[in-house]
Amino acid sequence: MTSPSYGLEGRAAVVTGATRGIGRAVAQALASAGALVCVTARDADEVRRTALELGGIGLAGSVADPGHHRRLTELALGEFGRLDVLVNNAATNQPYGPLMDAAPEAWREAFTVNVEAPLRLVQCAWRSWMSEHGGTVINVCTEGAGHVGPNVGAYGTSKAALLHLTGQLAGELGPRVRVNSVSPGLVRTEMARFMWEPGELDIAAGLPLGRIGEPEDVARAVLWLASDAAEWVTGADLVVDGGTRVRAAHIPAS
Ligand SMILES: NC(=O)c1ccc[n+]([C@@H]2O[C@H](COP(=O)([O-])OP(=O)(O)OC[C@H]3O[C@@H](n4cnc5c(N)ncnc54)[C@H](OP(=O)(O)O)[C@@H]3O)[C@@H](O)[C@H]2O)c1
Q: Which keywords does UniProt give here (predicted)?
């Protein structure tokens, strides 16, 4: 049996993109389970507010800034003396539109934020703590990484790369470090507002589980993967999508 805290009591976690949406819910869930939480995002006021609310610490900056990765892991290690959990959640869904219109800098930025930053952060965590003491990494991907869609070519391609990176790292870093991903379907956050706001009821009616996701739905999955309850799970992708992938078989109630 695992304890209600899933063994996360006193462990230290870094969560990127943690001031709102899914990252905020993940940081909250980890803090509620007794973990020491270090949050980051670009807006300094929001980072301060979130850290205060969660009783944790924070550092403002972009995950696109290579220096930020080192400063972030150093802060967590300096303040907590350990770094057990890394949640790579920050992402961009830009450039949005047909790939033939994607500017090179915008394409590179998508890969810098969505793929390179998670790798660099894992390297920092591995070199400074996890290679010796162990730990766990959770990358937030997307259900959409498994298929193509209009206007999301850069986002989908970079998230598919993150999914691949998750498996590669899981193979390379075991047994000390477990690396998994969570792939959400449509979740009620700012990033996805343009998708759910115009037709939420119709979208929900088409899903086997009858509603769009809430950030807490995803946070519970991340918490489980971070915990000792998932001690024999690595290289896995946990799809949390309300049945989006199987909706073709769904017969809506009349
Ligand atoms: N919502 C969905 O339907 C959905 C579906 C599938 C996957 N996801 C994935 O879930 C994750 C979280 O998305 P969300 O919907 O919760 O987004 P959100 O509500 O827009 O929150 C994004 C968070 O990331 C921070 N952030 C953005 N760019 C950053 C950067 N370059 N460096 C550091 N922090 C940055 C934001 O704060 P600042 O702006 O202050 O930096 C904010 O805290 C993403 O990986 C996304 O791809 C979301």
A: Oxidoreductase
89 lines ligand 1 (CB under 6 A): yes
Q: What domains are defined for the chain?
A: 12-185+211-239 (3.40.50.720)
The conformation of residue 128, written as its DSSP 8-state character, comes to I
Ligand 1 atom 2: residue of nearest CA: 187
DSSP state of 96: P
- Which tokens is 157 given? 């391609």
Ramachandran angles phi, psi of 142, nearest 5°: -160, 145
Cα separation, 239 vs 99, in Å, equals 26
Task: Tell me the whole-structure pTM to 2 decimals.
Answer: 0.98
pLDDT at residue 25, as a whole number? 98
Q: What is the pLDDT of residues 35-54, one digit of tens each?
A: 999 999 999 999 999 999 99
Q: What share of the chain is helix, strand, coil (3-state, %, to 5)?
A: 50, 15, 35
Tens digit of each residue's pLDDT (9 = 90 or more) over 62-113: 999 999 999 999 999 999 999 999 999 999 999 999 999 999 999 999 999 9
Q: Which residues contact 241 (CB under 8 A, 6 or more apart)?
A: 143, 183, 184, 185, 186, 213
Query: Which has the closest alpha carbon to 8: 218, 182, 229, 177?
Result: 229
Q: Which atom of ligand 1 is nearest to the CA of 64?
A: 31
Integer Cα distance of 216 and 187 in angstroms: 9
